[in-house]
Amino acid sequence: MNPAPNSSPALQQFDSWLEQQIKDLSVDALSREAMTCTACPQVIGDYIIEYQGESLRFPAPKAYAFLRYVLDQ
Q1: pTM of the model
Q2: Helix H or strand E encompassing 54
């Protein structure tokens, strides 16, 4: 008996936490000239990050990691 993906309260809480982390990192990353479309996941399912003249499209976990990378540079 396997539960449906993302149906557990823990995973729902994690998804909410991840979304908030990406929003917070997006604000910080503006200082590095990285702009993140935080409304895009509701519309197209992925985040779009404009960075160094490129438009990059990432699922949430990779968007989080990429923003951390940008801020750590």
Answers
A1: 0.83
A2: strand 54-58
